[in-house]
Amino acid sequence: MNVEKTGGRLFGSGRCSSLAGPPGAAPMVHRMVEAMSQLQEEKARLQEELAALQERLALRDSDQQATSTQLQNQVENLKEKLISQAQEVSRLRSELGGTDLEKHRDLLMVENERLRQEMRRFEAELQELRAKPVAPCTGCEHSQESAQLRDKLSQLQLEVVENKGMLSELNLEVQQKTDRLAEVELRLKDCLAEKAQEEERLSRRLRDSHETIASLRAQSPPIKYVIKTVEVESSKTKQALSESQARNQHLQEQVAMQRQVLKEMEQQLQSSHQLTAQLRAQIAMYESELERAHGQMLEEMQSLEEDKNRAIEEAFARAQVEMKAVHENLAGVRTNLLTLQPALRTLTNDYNGLKRQVRGFPLLLQEALKSVKAEIGQAIEEVNSNNQELLRKYRRELQLRKKCHNELVRLKGNIRVIARVRPVTKEDGEGPEATNAVTFDADDDSIIHLLHKGKPVSFELDKVFSPRASQQDVFQEVQALITSCIDGFNVCIFAYGQTGAGKTYTMEGTPENPGINQRALQLLFSEVQEKASDWDYTITVSAAEIYNEVLRDLLGQEPQEKLEIRLCPDGSGQLYVPGLTEFRVQSVEDINKVFEFGHTNRTTEFTNLNEHSSRSHALLIVTVRGVDCSTGLRTTGKLNLVDLAGSERVGKSGAEGSRLREAQHINKSLSALGDVIAALRSRQGHVPFRNSKLTYLLQDSLSGDSKTLMVVQVSPVEKNTSETLYSLKFAERVRSVELGPGSRRAELGSWSSQEHLEWEPACQTPQPSARAHSAPSSGTTSRPGSIRRKLQPLGKSRPVPV
Ligand code: ADP
Ligand code: MG
């Protein structure tokens, strides 16, 4: 239509311009008419040509339309095919899908596991069979076992066959699936080929159209215009083509994706094939193992069978031999039996007789039991009465022992004095001052010789311990005293002597080598334990210190506190110390704790403990309370262990202030101790206990039946001879008071003095023998006088011996 319009306008304008020319002559007009007619003809021809061209264009248009619808149809078809292929692929995937293969694989694995377990079970059974000892045949249990095993084996074989069947079925399935996959692949290939052909065809046609267009272009200009129009018109077609090409591209992409999926599926199929192959190999391995086990089992069974047969043969042979022997024995027994028959008869008779007796036996037994019981009862009674008698005797003996012990102690004297000489120590130094000045009598252990200022002096005491004496030796000597404490006696043990002479060593000792204190408590514990069946004992311990006439509790919470000694308010005349701590001790560990506590108290109180302890009296008071379980009798014994302050004299002019005060207090208390002992020995009506805290505190342990032991500590070296001399004199005097009543009385006058006197050595003119000098038989009436004559007042700072 557009073409027509355009053409009309073009030719119209041309006609107008030609009509506007100048009006001419007739030939001119004629020529013009001819030209007009020519033109008319030309126009008609051209119009025809145009119509033809238009027709052809319309044809071409319709052709193109048809081609595009065809292409569209083809695209639709392809799409449908693709969808169906995708469906087919998904179907195949669901059929052949990894899950199915996995299921198969799982099934096979489970089957494998089961087979493996079976295998293990069979192996265990086989092991058991092997482990069983090859016993000689005792029946047909092996054959039963082997039959069972055979059954199991056949069962297993059946299972193996079944499994094989299953495997082949699975294989078949896999094969089918593979075939189908190949088919699908083929179909896909066909589709692709078809598509390629179609593409080819379409592109050919496109080429043709292009060519046609080109040829049309090559025609005349009016046609060119037409072509241009056609080109314009065909752009739409081109667009449709490009769209369809894009769709095609998209479809190709999809096909590629499908191919990818297919490839993956193939891979999966391959892996499942591999798995199947592996499983097959495993099954084959298991089968071979099963076969091997079967073979082994058969061999085993064979050997068992052989063993069984051999054992049967051996047993048979043995049985035959035994049988023979038994036959022989039987023959012997038969002959014996013949001879035994008469004996049997007599035995039967005996048996009958015995039977009768047995029938009557319970009665007899009862009677016998009765009489035996009566006898036993009587015996028990006798034993009981014997026991009672023995107990009575034992108590009597105990009493006697106590008496004897007391007698012994009494004979030894209520106040005993022993000396202990310590060894020369490093502290004594070297040179002439540190030379030994003490010697002993080889035949008499109660004599001690001292070389003082070049003159020998001898003393006699109850016992003298040389430096060689051990702690145990010394303790042995005081042991009897300590045991008497359990019997209710009060005991005092004093260590007397100058500082450094060994008082603390003897009383306390060292942790490795304890002294009297610890040993005494140990002894008390063991004695108390021995008597535990009859007596109930309680042992308590107190520790106190007297310094400058002040009494302090070493076990108290307030060691600084001054304690007072009071009379019991019950009117018994007994003394007591309010606030003095008393610890109950039951073991050595307890004692150690108490000692440690006391020591700590003392250490924290005083900076220079050594110095302080040499100027104070340390008391350990052990009280033993007992109750006789049978009689209810109560006893109380007190053991006072006293480490006295140093007895050395303080220089007359040297001491001042506190040192002088200390010396005065020590002097006073040691003098008081001497006075008290003297008064006690002389049985004076008045004993000056109250003159010092020490004697006042120990009053009840010094008076009455009490027993006292004084250990005089002696330093052996030359430089100490002066102090040693005084200590020994003090000791000898204490001891010498303890003579017969006459002599005692005679001595009273001499020793009643309480003056604080310094003694001159008693033996300024050496005596031929210490015994002659100090023994009771050496004329006691004259001795006090002579000693008195020798007394020289030297100062007041020295403790006065009794
Ligand atoms: P005191 O208490 O009289 O001042 P010590 O007991 O402290 O004297 O003794 C002084 C020193 O002598 C200590 O070192 C002690 O170990 C030692 N000593 C004392 N006696 C003996 C002894 N028998 N054996 C060994 N060493 C002793
Ligand atoms: Mg000491």
Runs in which pLDDT lies below 50 for 5 or more consecutive residues are 1-24, 738-802
Number of strands: 15
Percentage beta strand: 5-15%
CATH class annotation of the domain at 413-605 and 613-735: Alpha Beta
Query: In the CATH hierarchy, what is the superfamily of the domain at 413-605 and 613-735?
Result: Kinesin motor domain
CATH architecture of the domain at 413-605 and 613-735: 3-Layer(aba) Sandwich
| Count of runs of 4 or more consecutive helical residues | 17
Overall, the morphology is elongated
- The mean pLDDT is 78
* Helix coverage percent: 55-70%
Descriptive keywords:
cell junction, disordered C terminus, 66% helix, membrane, 802 residues, alpha/beta, 15 strands, binds adenosine-5'-diphosphate, elongated, binds magnesium ion, 10-stranded mixed beta sheet, Kinesin_motor_CS, P-loop_NTPase, Kinesin, single chain, Kinesin_motor_dom_sf
Characterise this structure:
- The chain is built from 17 helices and 15 strands.
- It is elongated, with a radius of gyration of 72 Å.
- Among the domains are: 283-412; 413-605 and 613-735, Kinesin motor domain (Kinesin, 3-Layer(aba) Sandwich).
- Strand 10 (566-567) and strand 11 form a beta hairpin.
- It is α/β, with parallel strands linked by helices.
- The protein has helices spanning 2-19, 26-96, 98-131, 141-218, 221-412, 471-486, 503-507, 516-530, 588-605, 609-614, 657-681, 693-697, 699-702, 721-736, 741-751, 770-774, 783-790; strands at residues 415-421, 438-440, 447-452, 455-460, 463-465, 491-496, 535-547, 550-553, 562-563, 566-567, 575-576, 583-584, 617-628, 634-643, 707-714.
- The chain binds adenosine-5'-diphosphate and magnesium ion.
- Magnesium ion binds at residues 503-504, 613-614, 643.
